[in-house]
Design a protein that fits this description.
Layout (H helix, E strand, L loop, with lengths): L8 H8 L19 H23 L8 H20 L3 H23 L7 H12 L17 H34 L9 H47 L4 H39 L4
Helix pairs in contact: 1-7, 2-4, 3-4, 4-8, 6-7, 6-8, 7-8
Amino acid sequence: MAAENGPTAGEYIAHHLTHWQNKPMNGVVDFSVFNLDSIIWALVLGIAGSFLLWKTARAVTSGVPGRLQAAVEILVEMVDNQAKGIIHNAHSRKLVAPLALSVFIWIFLMNAMDLLPVDLLPKIWGGLFNAVGGDPHHAYMRVVPTADLSTTFGLSVSVLLVCIAYNIKIKGMGGWLHEMFTAPFGNHPILWPFNFVMQIIEFAAKTVSHGMRLFGNMYAGELVFLLIALMGGAAAVSLSGILLPIGQVIAGTVWALFHLLIITIQAFIFMMLALVYVGQAHDHH
């Protein structure tokens, strides 16, 4: 796209991939900088998912269930069966199974934000920004929290903390520390440092891969939607025909249908890995 007719393709993508933050990064690592858009949308969708489950639970009937109740019951049964197959401690499942259900629904809702038209909410935000006297070109708004590495790492670190808590609860502090220094190579004092380093590497690798897998898939999906949106922009400034707009609609529809499968699978994989990691915390070495 020509610069005089609007942003270039690179500028368009860069604008859509820039977070609304509490202050500029200034090119340095600053842990006091927060991606406000990711935090707000994650909270809104978490509250929405919790309200949906609460509303469904209040309306439960023993007669013929409605569609929403039937869907939630199927989902609850699926998660419960997965939890039973991985975590054999019935007492732990009372907390872990609802936690896994909440994780699945929350991540699915955050992923599903990718299905909205890429310019819809950013345009609305830009209009509000302009209404209060701000420059809409600096009104940044990313609406897919799971396409933000800080969000997915926050989720994976939370799973790590749950795993550590269950390691201590099931094995005791002494038992867990003993395992940290004696597995996987053995109980000889010479092997203790190697065992401890291996355990730390295992915890770190699981946490990083857990968060990176979800982030990578959602970030790639977001980029594809942006590239499809650029087809419409290119048609507006360079073509008088309708072939490219039709191609944009077809490509967007096909990718959205395929992406619906991706966002569901990614939520399921994250939930299953969380169950597996918590299940491993119940195993004695």
